[in-house]
Design a protein that fits this description.
Residues 1-19 form the signal peptide. The protein is an alpha+beta fold.
Length: 712
């Protein structure tokens, strides 16, 4: 019997723990209670030294084997993250907290400090409870007539969340609805933007970029799952005090959603696996965020309500994939004519992880939807990747090849350089098994290629040895040879020979991001950005700080289950969790083409333009409200880009030929004069478009939001 099988069986032969003393009971998934009662339940499971030691063993050996020390010793600018993870974890081994929850909070705080959504920790299931409020914050840009320019600060207003009914039932005597629509000045006595940004800096793992982190914190501040968010001290999640600009204040106690098993130690234990799957290879993660909630789907009726200029091609609420689109026709104005734009294709890519299985079916469905969208008639494309948490890398690459002619003609231009750290476990795996991929199953989607030959490796030794020395933060470590991913399977699907109705130039391909677009989505944005083949528009962020186009741009993720698997194949031991927490971590590193010595996640590359938008979709906010806001955002992004195009293309008036008086010469001359008149009108339209554009951008905050930013 294998070492892995013996150790796994040992875990599940342990006796069941004593019954829970938590007083809360729930027979369905969304019961509600007060923070005081929920907090008592979270503290109910006592500190268990055996559980804690197994958790620390798994985390420590994973970190030791996959190069976190050198990477995070000092990341250098622009973020300069300096951590000693192993020392921090080691210190916990000698601590004796009163409850397991307090221990779990310490673990989560250490891993949150990485500011990397790839490396995310989720507490065991017995802590499944979410703190929520009936309100959200809606940031808006000041109107054009305001004396409060955006370059200083947008205004924050109180808006309802999706939990108003549940809150009213739990707290019938609290009238929060009377305050909806008021402008907020302070949260808990701190200026509203400062409070949300500060909370995001210490709790939000979506990004190491402060602006992108703020965009994520706008929603997570009011929606805090205990399994993925640090809650201690509990006094910080009892009541939220809100002060408005009119001087009034309201105090709202938090509401807690919970389900069956809250605070029950038995609900923390791993479920016994069936005997068939215990030695089977765990499935690989798609390369995406381990998230608290799925992306909110846009509400199609809100996109097209009273909009005869829009035609939905793939309905976001009906598609079986994560891609939807519509076309938008523009009126025949002088500005649109000068810009050369009649129709715009708007594509929403919610993630690169469509739900179908097996993965080949997911790929085919996703790319088929993309082909349907790109088969429409259009002159400009807007691709919305806001809040996209990633997915299959090959789908991101293949979509770039379908959008950009240069990538379509040469698939190697979308390939990225990766490497993996040398470690005792990986060296033992390569020496013993010698598979030509980091993953042992040839059917996996994460197969690799030799970037020099464009062929798969024959052995593991070819990609792993002799390796290369890499220095990060003053620490030199040995890493594998360069490799890239093998996406030929995606390129050979039925869409292999697809060509869009039109390849648009970089000034007419607009990628809209909020900076939280991560993992595979980061490759989808960074690759064309570094190649200067698209125009990038950044939404929201902190007005006085840089907004990166993407986040957590690591190579791909791994998990302890796979490490146990390769250890088992190699004949060595690797520890296992005793409880049902989840942890994934960035594994391979992906390197920037623009800054080739640096992993991409430690670079900061700004969008060309910024737009004042903070009404991001989230399950805690009504879908029709946020979709209406996103709908207006699309109009703004389209109008701004059309105005830029018109301003850059006033047109030239052709000179009439004086010699053509016979054979229809006067008719030709008349046509020429007419064309000249039209082009002159276009030129005048372009001039006014440019003037209007400058005025709008001044209203939006001047150069900060309108200028083409220095990308060095």
């Amino acid at each position: 019997m294998s070492l892995f099988l013996l150790s796994a069986l040992g875990l599940f032969l342990s006796p069941v723990l004593v019954a829970s003393e938590c007083s809360l009971a729930c027979s369905y998934s969304n019961c509600t209670t007060t923070p005081a009662l929920a907090s008592e339940c979270l503290l109910n499971p006592p500190y268990n030294k055996t559980w804690a030691d197994s958790t620390l063993d798994v985390l420590t050996q994973s970190l030791e084997n996959f190069g976190f020390g050198p990477i995070y010793h000092n990341t250098g600018p622009p973020y300069s993250i300096q951590l000693d993870l192993l020392s921090s974890l080691s210190a916990l081994s000698s601590s004796t907290p009163d409850s397991d929850f307090e221990f779990q909070e310490e673990i989560q705080a250490i891993l949150t400090s990485l500011l990397d959504a790839h490396t995310r920790y989720r507490k065991p299931n017995c802590y499944s409870a979410t703190w929520a409020l009936p309100i959200a914050v809606n940031y808006t840009a000041p109107p054009a007539s305001s004396d409060f320019p955006l370059s200083e600060e947008p205004a924050a207003f109180l808006s309802p969340s999706t939990y108003t009914d549940e809150y009213a039932a739990l707290y019938p005597d609290i009238d929060f609805e009377a305050s909806l629509g008021k402008q907020i000045q302070y949260l808990n006595g701190v200026e509203v933007t400062t409070e949300i940004a500060s909370w995001g800096d210490s709790h939000e793992t979506r990004s190491n970029n402060p602006g992108a982190r703020f965009n994520a914190a706008l929603r997570s501040y009011f929606y805090r799952p205990a399994t993925t968010t640090n809650l201690l001290p509990f006094s910080s999640v009892e009541t939220l005090s809100i002060t408005f600009t009119d001087g009034t204040t309201i105090s709202l106690p938090w509401m807690v959603f919970y389900g069956e098993g809250l605070g029950d130690p038995n609900a923390c234990l791993l479920d016994p696996p069936d005997t068939v799957s215990i030695t089977a290879r765990p499935p690989s993660f798609a390369h995406q965020l381990l998230d608290d909630s799925p992306p909110q789907v846009l509400h199609a009726p809100s996109l097209t309500k009273d909009r005869s200029d829009r035609t939905v091609i793939i309905d976001p609420e009906e598609t079986t994939t994560t891609l939807s689109c519509f076309t938008q026709s523009l009126p025949g104005s002088a500005t649109a004519t000068a810009a050369g734009v009649k129709n715009v294709l708007v594509m929403k890519v919610a993630s690169f992880s469509p739900p179908q299985q097996p993965y080949a079916d997911a790929w085919a469905a996703f790319l088929g939807d993309a082909a349907t969208c790109l088969g429409e008639e259009y002159d400009m494309v807007v691709v919305d990747v806001m809040q996209n948490g990633g997915g299959y890398v090959c789908l991101g690459w293949r979509l770039l090849e379908m959008l950009i002619e240069e990538f379509n003609l040469d698939h190697e231009k979308v390939q990225m350089r990766y490497d993996l750290p040398h470690s005792s476990l990986m060296s033992a795996f390569v020496d013993a098994v010698n598979y030509p991929d980091p993953y042992d199953n040839p059917g996996d989607v994460e197969q690799i290629l030799n970037p020099e030959t464009q062929l798969p490796y024959n052995t593991g030794e070819e990609w792993y040895y002799p390796g290369r020395n890499a220095t990060a933060g003053g620490v030199t470590s040995l890493r594998s040879n360069w490799f890239t991913l093998n996406c030929k399977e995606a390129e050979d699907l039925p869409t292999a020979d697809f060509k869009p109705s039109k390849f648009v130039g970089k000034d007419k391909l607009v990628i809209l991001t909020d900076g939280t677009c991560g993992s595979t989505c980061a490759s989808f944005t960074k690759i064309p950005q570094e190649a200067e083949l698209a125009t990038f528009v950044g939404a929201g962020g902190l007005v006085d700080q840089v907004l990166d186009v993407s986040s957590f741009a690591g190579g791909f993720v791994c998990n302890p289950g796979y490490l146990q698997h390769i250890a088992n194949m190699t004949g060595v031991t690797f520890p296992a969790f005793l409880t049902n927490q989840a942890w994934q971590f960035g594994w391979a590193a992906w390197y920037s083409e623009r800054l080739p010595s640096r992993p991409v996640q430690f670079t900061e590359q700004e969008p060309h333009y910024r737009t004042p938008f903070w009404a991001f979709p989230h399950p805690s906010v009504p879908a029709d409200t946020t979709t209406a806001a996103v709908s207006s955002l699309y109009d703004s992004v389209i109008d701004d880009n059309v105005e830029r195009l018109a301003a850059a293309n006033p047109g030239d008036c052709p000179s009439p030929s004086p010699a053509k008086k016979q054979d229809g010469g006067w008719r030709t001359f008349g046509i020429t004069v007419f064309v000249c008149f039209i082009l002159a009108a276009c030129g005048i339209g372009a001039f006014f478009a440019w003037t209007k554009y400058q005025e709008r951008q001044q209203m939006k905050g001047g150069p900060l939001l309108s200028g083409l930013l220095d990308e060095t």
